[in-house]
Design goal:
- The protein is mainly alpha-helical.
- It has one domain.
- It has 14 helices and no strands.
- The protein is globular, with a radius of gyration of 19 Å.
- The protein starts with 11 loop residues before the first helix and ends with a helix.
């Protein structure tokens, strides 16, 4: 497992353990789209309960004590929470409208959006590698648009919006992470996101309870899989594996999600879509290295 970039002093047994955790983490994040498809609930409600569940799971971090938060930290935490909640809402809605391949690929354009936002907000000029990655990905998006059997313009736009919201969340959340540990930050951010979504749902008349038991079960699986196995698994591996390696492994989500969609939902993409998806992944991988 040399490709994972382990520190040379990492014992073989630990390498095997981390490799297994990362395999489960990729499977966990890849299962999110298929799980959402099976839920009989509004995407806003799914997002609200998903973020609330994550906040509850991470709440033990608060028992260690919350560091003194400045006013700017509180504003950043609330802002990041709103962006995270809207990201989940947009992406979950996208999954119900377009193909899982298209939705997961378009939401993975985060490196391109992040570079654009940092250019606009901070004057940080995109690197040549970012521009090269974009040049590789754009033809892939053109090929992807030809697979219209499961396509929806609204779904595609929402997936792109979800990626933009995730990039904005990273830009905003990065400031508060300089002073607050990861678990505490994520707990408070998820709590802010869930409160925002529950408020929007209550104000717009979205049904937030009364789902069938199967939907509650899938929500629990979504919390256990994408959240605990997925995101927490990557957080665990970060101690031994470089962040650049993890960001590249996360690009396997569209591959895993598409395979699960083919097995569970019989959603088979066309050949052009597979080629386009491969180009998009290559472009995003190039930009994120």
């Amino acid at each position: 497992m040399r490709f994972l970039g382990f520190d040379p002093d990492t014992p073989p047994a630990q390498r095997t353990k981390v490799g297994a955790v990362l395999a489960l983490a990729v499977l966990g994040i890849s299962s999110s789209a298929v799980l959402v498809r099976g839920m009989q609930a509004d995407p806003l409600a799914i997002a609200a309960w998903r973020t609330l569940g994550a906040a509850v799971v991470l709440s033990p971090a608060l028992l260690r004590g919350v560091p003194a938060l400045r006013r700017r930290d509180v504003v950043d935490l609330i802002g990041a929470g709103v962006l995270l909640g809207l990201h989940f809402w947009s992406w979950f809605t996208s999954v119900t409208l377009t193909s899982i391949l298209r939705s997961t690929l378009l939401v993975c354009l985060v490196p391109a959006w992040t570079a654009l936002l940092e250019w606009m907000l901070r004057g940080t000029v995109p690197t040549r590698r970012h521009l090269l990655g974009l040049a590789i990905a754009l033809p892939g998006l053109a090929l992807l648009s030809g697979d219209d059997r499961h396509a929806s313009l609204d779904g595609d736009l929402l997936a792109g919006l979800a990626g933009l919201l995730w990039a904005a969340y990273l830009v905003v959340g990065r400031r508060v992470r300089q002073r607050v540990d990861a678990a505490t930050t994520m707990c408070l951010v998820c709590l802010a996101g869930s409160l925002t979504l529950f408020a929007v749902g209550a104000g717009t008349g979205v049904t937030l309870t009364g789902f069938p038991s199967s939907t509650w079960g899938l929500l629990a699986l979504a919390l256990a899989g994408p959240q605990l196995l997925g995101h927490q698994g990557f957080a665990y591996a970060l101690r031994w594996v470089p962040a650049s390696t993890l960001s590249t492994l996360m690009l396997l989500e569209p591959v895993g999600a598409t395979l699960l969609a083919a097995l569970v939902l019989h959603e088979i993409p066309q050949r052009e879509a597979v080629l386009g998806g491969a180009l998009v992944l290559a472009g995003v991988w190039t930009a994120s290295r």
